[in-house]
Amino acid sequence: MDNYTGKDFYCDIALAGKVELDVVFEDDHVLAFHHTKPFWPVHIVVIPKKHIPSFTDLGEHEPEQLVNIMMVVQHITREVENEYGAARVLTNLGEYQDSKHLHFHVNFGVPKC
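That's the HIT family hydrolase sequence above. Prediction below.
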């Protein structure tokens, strides 16, 4: 999986069970897990289980789909902030979005360059 070059790592690999994930949260609609190649010391990814292209392109999905995922992002971010004193929430769009599946990075710390 180190050389994955597809457009949707989350559907093709993560949700398909082709890689072991350290799950932080899971329900019928959302999956959150520690990033498989973390960029920050704390790096959690939150994704919808249904394919949604991006934050600005919901595809065929209703905007209400964002409510559930944002509640999970908020919960996880609050936990990271409480434990470490700070947190960031990031989503990439357009050319910045390597995997064309809506996802949020919840992170803390200095990048692991």
